[in-house]
Amino acid sequence: MRKIPQTQFLLSLVGFFVVAMTSHLQASIVTTPSGLSVGQQFRLVFVTSGQRNATSSDIADYNAFVDTAGDIAIASDWKAIVSTETVNARDNTGTTGDGGVPIYNLAGELVANHYADLWDESIQNFINVDEFGNDPDYWVWTGTTALGLTSQHLGGATGTYGTTDDTEDIWMFEDIVGTSTELHFFGLSDIFTVPSADPIPEPASVITWTLLGIVGWVGTWWNRRRKTG
């Protein structure tokens, strides 16, 4: 059997790492948006990659579902942006009133400047990034109007759903469907504060430096081989 030259093997290995890590870079998430000052507060919003039905009348079930998914991205007390018969989405997520903090999606894009901006029947960017950094188009259970109030609530026979690919009111209320249908959910984090220093780099940074280290090692090895060859 013909042996693969060592140089060819190492270059192939580097190529493999480049392809693999590039795919991870494309799916990286942003948990501290750029442009914020130290001490500034913000919240994050995402869409779950997983689906479930909306037959439960207990909002705690939906909160638990999005909390499990959201913690994959970053640990927080994630709340579902949904309404049941007795709880409005704006109350469940603590987004009532005119104040509040800015809200960003997991791509680092501004979704709302504050809570009133979230519920003024439009948002500034799509909520289309899931806990793994993917950005597909999803239908999403809401049971809610674009004002954050109950409308065809979850737990009934039919419920309201929204979409990830719109910034107008249909992000919350696109149509109505039977609650036995399995759809995705929006989740909103608790409040984060920008730290004075971030000891944990973003996933993209870790991957980039790892890749550069591998390329640098191969370059050093190649130069030494040429000098001694």
Order of helical and strand elements: HEHEHEEHEEEEEH
Largest sheet: 9 strands, mixed
Q: Mind telling me the CATH superfamily name of the domain at 41-193? A: Mannose-Binding Protein A, subunit A
Low-confidence stretches: 13-26
* Approximate shape: globular
CATH class of the domain at 41-193: Alpha Beta
First-to-last CA distance: 25 Å
What's the number of helices? 5
- What is the alpha-carbon Rg in Å? 22 Å
Which characteristics define this entry?
single chain; 229 residues; alpha+beta; Mannose-Binding Protein A, Chain A; nine-stranded mixed β-sheet; 5 helices; 31% helix; globular
What would you say this structure looks like, in words?
- The protein has 229 residues and is α+β, with helices and mostly antiparallel strands.
- 31% of the residues lie in helices and 15% in strands.
- The protein contains 5 helices and 9 strands; from the N terminus they run H-E-H-E-H-E-E-H-E-E-E-E-E-H.
- Strands 1, 2, 3, 4, 5, 6, 7, 8 and 9 form a 9-stranded mixed sheet that branches.
- Helix 1 (6-26) packs antiparallel against helix 5.
- It is globular.
